[in-house]
């Protein structure tokens, strides 16, 4: 337990940062806190977030949302932040630091698209609340969510922020430690990397031209983010149409294809894909599901293994759904929205899409 330092007198007219400790005392506290709580909390947050993503996302979609970096704020950075007016008036003793400053421990997640941020937000909101749950390994701090994606800061900064709470065991007690999670798209993260370390110096105002150019860059990348989201939605729509469409007529090979529609390589057919091998892989993918998966996602996983050309005609089946039902005769497919495969022994939960949850419950009654 850190010894509480006496509060030094402070006049009402004095707005300078004069806590009840000096930098040497702060530095000693920081080293102890980092070794005992902050660094263990950083490692725990990274591990638990990765485990949560592994559980919630399929292997095919896992690369879209990933923990990219983490850190414990360096002592000089933390000391500088403590001197800002919105924090300095609240910090009188060393124990106040972790209560007032919420990003001493920081973790960053990078997503491919804007819709990935929305999806991840739903996953995080399903975590227990830190002010309600008595026991937890990872919890959400109520009221800590900040959506800078749709409401960027004046600088142009865009991201989704939320505070997470984890526990760190000690010799005599278990301590709750708070960490800030930042979630950005690839482009938002690129803007942050290009502008933050290159231009941000605590206590030093930026030249107006730098602020203007950084804001302009942020706005341009936000437009590109919207375009990338439109591309993804269209690709998802085409993938879903492909999965649902019936194959009406045999494919007529072109001059650069063999009789199965597989491209020729140097004038010779590509290796033949066994129908049984495709069915076995489909059964393996379905058997490994822990949460509902869209049919289009499962089809994409198969094509990632065998290539698009061999599965162009779904190995002779009318459509992908027929192939899947032959591979896994007892597969549970719910025909709502894009169509979902439901894992065995699955129990509807808050992270399921609402239409899927409602349809599944109705069919189970």
Poorly predicted ranges (pLDDT <50, ≥5 residues)? 1-15, 247-262, 264-270
Domain count, please report it: 2
The SS-based structural class is alpha+beta
- How large a portion of the residues is in β-strands, by DSSP E? 5-15%
Helix percent band: 40-55%
Tell me, what is the CATH class of the largest domain? Alpha Beta
User: How many angstroms does the end-to-end distance come to?
Assistant: 55 Å
Superfamily (CATH H level) name of the largest domain: Beta Polymerase, domain 2
The CATH topology of the largest domain turns out to be: Beta Polymerase, domain 2
Shape: elongated
CATH architecture of the largest domain: 2-Layer Sandwich
N-to-C series of helices and strands: HEHHHEHEEEEHHEEHEHHEEH
Q: How many extended strands?
A: 11
Integer average pLDDT: 83
* Helix count from the secondary structure assignment: 11
Rg, Cα atoms, Å: 27 Å
Describe the structure.
The chain is 43% helix and 15% strand. A hairpin with a 5-residue loop joins β10 (332-334) and β11 (340-342). The longest helix has 37 residues, at 208-244. It has helices at 23-56, 75-82, 85-88, 96-100, 114-125, 186-199, 208-244, 275-287, 295-306, 320-327, 354-364, and strands at residues 65-72, 105-111, 138-140, 146-147, 160-169, 174-185, 264-265, 268-269, 293-294, 332-334, 340-342. Residues 1-15, 247-262 and 264-270 have low confidence and may be disordered. The chain has eleven helices and eleven strands. The strands form three sheets. Strands 1, 2, 3, 4, 5 and 6 form a six-stranded mixed sheet that branches. A three-stranded antiparallel sheet has the order 9-11-10. It folds into two domains: 23-186, Beta Polymerase, domain 2 (2-Layer Sandwich); 273-364, no CATH class. By secondary structure, the protein is an alpha+beta fold. α7 (208-244) packs across α9. This is Putative GTP pyrophosphokinase. Residues 70-206 form the RelA/SpoT domain. InterPro entries: GTP_Pyrophosphokinase, NT_sf, RelA_SpoT. Keywords: Kinase, Transferase. Residues 243-269 are annotated as: Disordered.
């Amino acid at each position: 337990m850190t010894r509480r330092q006496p509060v030094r007198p402070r006049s009402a007219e004095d707005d300078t940062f004069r806590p009840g400790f000096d930098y040497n005392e702060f530095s000693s506290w920081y080293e102890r806190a980092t070794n005992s709580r902050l660094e263990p909390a950083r490692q725990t947050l990274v591990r638990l977030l990765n485990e949560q993503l592994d559980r919630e996302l399929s292997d095919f979609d896992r690369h879209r949302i990933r923990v990219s970096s983490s850190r414990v704020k360096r002592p000089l950075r933390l000391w500088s932040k403590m001197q800002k007016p919105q924090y300095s008036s609240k910090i009188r003793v060393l124990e106040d630091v972790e209560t007032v400053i919420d990003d001493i421990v920081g973790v960053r997640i990078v997503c491919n698209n804007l819709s990935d941020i929305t999806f991840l937000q739903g996953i995080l909101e399903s975590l227990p609340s830190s002010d309600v749950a008595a026991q937890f390994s990872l919890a959400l701090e109520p009221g800590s969510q900040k959506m800078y994606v749709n409401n960027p800061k004046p600088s142009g900064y865009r991201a989704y922020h939320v505070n997470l709470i984890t526990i760190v065991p000690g010799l005599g007690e278990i301590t709750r430690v708070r960490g800030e999670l930042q979630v950005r798209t690839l482009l938002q993260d690129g803007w942050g990397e290009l502008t933050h370390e290159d231009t941000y110096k605590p206590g030093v105002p930026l030249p107006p031209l730098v602020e203007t150019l950084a804001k302009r860059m942020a706005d341009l990348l936000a437009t590109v983010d919207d375009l990338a989201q439109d591309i993804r939605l269209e690709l998802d729509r085409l993938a879903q149409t492909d999965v649902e469409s019936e194959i009406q007529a045999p494919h007529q090979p072109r001059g650069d294809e063999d009789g199965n529609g597989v491209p020729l390589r140097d004038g010779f057919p590509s290796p033949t894909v066994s129908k049984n091998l495709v069915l076995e892989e489909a059964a393996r993918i379905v058997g490994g599901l822990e949460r509902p998966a869209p049919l289009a996602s499962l089809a994409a996983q198969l094509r990632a293994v065998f290539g698009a050309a061999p599965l162009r005609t779904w190995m002779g089946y009318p459509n992908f759904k027929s192939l899947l039902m032959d591979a896994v005769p007892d597969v549970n497919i719910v025909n709502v929205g894009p169509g979902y495969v439901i894992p065995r022994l699955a129990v509807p939960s808050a992270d399921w899409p609402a239409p899927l949850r409602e349809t599944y419950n109705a069919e189970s009654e």
